[in-house]
Amino acid sequence: MKKINHLITACVAVCLSNVSFAQNTWDGGTTSTITTNGSVGIGASPGVYRLNVTNASTASGISQSTTSAISGNQYGISNNLNNTNTSGTKYGLYNTVTNYSSGSSYGIYSTNVAQGTGQKYGIYSNVSGGGNGVGYGIYSSISGTSTVRYSIYSSVTNSGTRTSSTDATVFGFFSSALGGDSRSGYFRGDLEVNQGNTIHSSSNGNKTMFFESDVANDYRTAIVFNQTSNQYDWAWGKALELNRAGEMIKKIDGTGKVFSINRSDLSQDVFRIYGDGRVFSTELNVKLASAFPDYVFKSDYQLMPLNEVSDYIKSNGHLPNVPAAAEVEKEGINVGEMTTVLVEKVEELTLYLIEQQSFIKQQQVEIEKLKLELKKITK
Known about the structure:
Layout: H1 2-16, E1 21-24, E2 31-34, E3 40-42, E4 51-53, E5 74-75, E6 120-121, E7 198-200, E8 209-213, E9 220-225, E10 240-243, E11 248-250, E12 257-263, E13 268-274, E14 279-281, H2 306-316, H3 325-331, H4 335-378
Parallel strand pairs: 3-4, 5-6
Antiparallel strand pairs: 1-2, 2-3, 7-8, 8-9, 9-10, 10-11, 12-13, 13-14
């Protein structure tokens, strides 16, 4: 009897290995095919695919909904593609959407309403393994002529509050890259950040950098570095800001170096600006906004008589056209204008000296005449 049962079982197994099963599917009309090698075809034969779906009657090719209140990891779709060094393109999940009608189209649409503790993923992708070729965790290509198109669209709503001591816990898109030649993101083309305030990195402690726009509704962009390993411990007192007026402002909380230009071939700074206003440079050229004072030497220039200069100094405490000390202390000095004034005074002083030299020379002539007359009288 045992031999008969084994024989029957073997015969059934051989027969099933070459038979496909047909049954009604969820839409009530499409025939699904399930083969004994694990492939499933819905509306079509499985072919080379483990799951092959051809659908023309409903809005969804595959609709998957998971609602769970248990703790631990949960996945709407979990796909693990593991291959050795074989040729050909491998896809964990491959989706092509062609839409000619109005309305929204989604290659992959995921909604995650999660309860309880543990990690929740709308879409989770992990790429690993060796071999040549390019590996994509998620690859999306979009084309068409519709007004708005999203290759990947993510919407995140969080009721939590960000504090100065905790990291963010809700991400619209999360990417992790490990290894010397890996990058978390690659963008070829324009990148737009809209209706958001920050772009920042939360790793590497005090090496992190923070970009923020619309600071206190002032419509400015700030670049700030982290001071400690706390993600939100930003050094606002040292921020670099660019406001909507086109002004670039570098903040400093001390008298140290704010900006410098370093000559790598000389291994030294050739230009520096310090927090207390000092400027160090090897040379400074100023292009004047007004004429250089060679006009002083023209014949029509009215040189103020020395007695009037003396009266002006007594009344004002400084030279004509030279700013008063109180004004300089309040407004500072325009280097170009002050250089012009100083050259003007030097040229005027030169004219005074020439005038005095001419007067002295005339006096010397008169003295020589008086000496001759005196000599005649004393004989």
